[in-house]
Amino acid sequence: MTVRDKVMRVAEKILKTKPYDQITFAEIAKEAGVHWTAVRRHFGGKQQMRDWLKARQAEEENRFADTRTRILEAGLSLFADLGYANASLDKVAAVAGMTKGAVYWHFSSKHDLFLAILEHSLQKQLRRLPAQIEHLFTASDPETALAELLQAQLECLEQESGGSMLFLEFITSSREPAVRMKLREVHSLIIDGVSAMIDEMQQKGLISSQPEPHAVSLAIDAFLKGYVIEWLIDPQRCESKVLFQTIARLLWKGLKPENRPSSLPETARE
How much is the average pLDDT of 182-197? Predict the structure, then answer.
């Protein structure tokens, strides 16, 4: 091994234990068994060394994040297919195509992974909500937009049926205190976030000011969860276009402001 190879390998080793901007020539030299000037010679200077270390650290973090994402995706699929009780980290490793050690490096237990998936799934839902709500209530025809949103939800269920089963796993596993606490914590973010958006839409006059925002948020959330359960029980009964239009009409009647029609005339839509 050349001196350069030794210096670079030691630098990468130390990088795993501390931030790149806290590593010195002397520290690398001592570990590599060379003079500090040799380290400087191979890096070209202090700033050059830190730039190199920063780039290597970023590469490692990206690799770490990609690995964790693969584990989360494999866990989501496995928990949905087998259920919480029948899943294991060993099975997750097999689905992800990784060693058991790689999975255990990121998650100490099946319970730890399950909570991470719960938070990841609900946070993903939370990120989508603002754009969906804004589009819904600012559309020229909110009733039709609402019907289209419901239909899009069905298409998501068909494409990601595992996610729907995982939703039931979250609910049934909430007997465990840690799962219940995490579910309540992230779910509260969604309810409060939608409540704030409903209040904002009311302030803008886009929807009726009569309904209490928190109550509306809970009602919408309850409807969506109920719809998921209905779809899981009997998908055929949830595929009718008339169903979406009917439900959208009922919901919009309670939300539309008095000075706004339920929908635009057919000519206006065109």
Answer: 82
